[in-house]
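Quick question, first post here. What does this chain look like in 3D?
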Amino acid sequence: MEAHHLRNLLGPEILRARLEREGRPRTTLSFYRYVRLSGVEALRNTLYAEWEPLGVLGRIYLSQEGINAQVSVPTANLGKFRADLDGREAFRDVPWKIAVEDDGRSFLKLAIKVKRKIVADGLDDDAFDVTNVGEHLDAATFNRKMDEGALVIDMRNNYECLIGHFEGAYLPKADTFRGAIDEVKELMTLRRAQSDTEPEVLLYCTGGIRCEKASAYLKHQGFTNVGQLHGGIIDYARQIKAHGLPSKYKGRNFVFDERLAERITDDVVSVCMQCGTASDRITNCHEVTCNMLLVQCEACAARYADCCSPGCREIHQLPEAVQRTWRKGRSTRSTKTKAINDPEGLRRRIREEEESLALNGTLHPEIRNPSGEWELANGHGGDAPRSIRH
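> Answer (accepted):
Ran it through. Tokens below.
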């Protein structure tokens, strides 16, 4: 098959409708492996040609250092998919983490990308031994070491741990993995300086892959008593259910697919960023040039039309032709910062915008003329007509 055919060319609405019509059970799973790969571009094309006919959807990163995959596979084809992986020495017997909650809509398309690294960590891998990782711990051992007083550290970023985390864990303030690593290094350096003995440290993340790199880096920095939750939160949830263990993880687990989160326990550990009521419903602002992640309760979702603020709501509710023209030349906020991290600042912004809206009737006077028509501002040309009656 031609390489240019080995990619999706359809838009999200078509893909979503196709998935709805499919009507077959699916299983969402993830796996990774650090392993030396050669001919990565050719391998990428081969995997696409093999997996697309199986109905595999998802996001797979390949690099010379290995594979990192989150996929949705038709349940009937799981055996064929397993056989395809095991048919390659590099991927043989790679452990799967099965999703805790699965509505069959976790991914819309198959995307296999060649990357420099399978996790963007900003670290110089040549400067330390990436195979010298922390001790792999199962759920029972992780729980026991927590009870014995080990320092538990969340290696995810700030918006992931908002809606769920282990009891008493240190939660990073950083919104990137590299920022979290630096933050944890500073914390552990401070703890070591304050104590005559090095504390035992337990790391955890979503599926385990970030802890592999983080634990090796921390051991290179001289921290030797480092353990990590093998299989991450996803496999922890499976183990506690299988063995009847108490869950020390509370709330939901953030995931990087259409679901955004899966429930581990019924505990609600966060609040709506807009009104402050208890909620762990995480979503993206539906205004396309915002797209910021936030915790938003159902009532506020209805009040703000699934947007983060009155200003975004007004744009989101414009006629689509006006929205498209208004968006031209505007960058998306979430490309710089993925999530809103100042809830009080957001509430203050909402109050100010509601007051301005009540006073002026609009928060975007540049797109409405006195006659009440939506008018495209100068400098925002396009195929849409200049005035569109709403």
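The CA atoms of residues 112 and 372 lie 47 Å apart.
Confidence is low (pLDDT under 50) at residues 377-390.
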